[in-house]
Amino acid sequence: MNILLVLIPVSLVFLLIAIGIFIWALRNKQFENLESAALDILASETEAGDETKNDGNKNDAG
Fold it and tell me: Does the pTM of the predicted model rise above 0.90?
């Protein structure tokens, strides 16, 4: 039962840290444009596919 005296304050500290990070993300406009990142991934796959065709048999794995 004494462990609750430690775990409850620790969990409250983690909660405050998480809320602080969320507020920081809101203030720095991290959630302004949610769709462009998904479209960038699709665009980079097509560009990466074109680059591998031009490189021939280059292999970074060894």
Answer: no
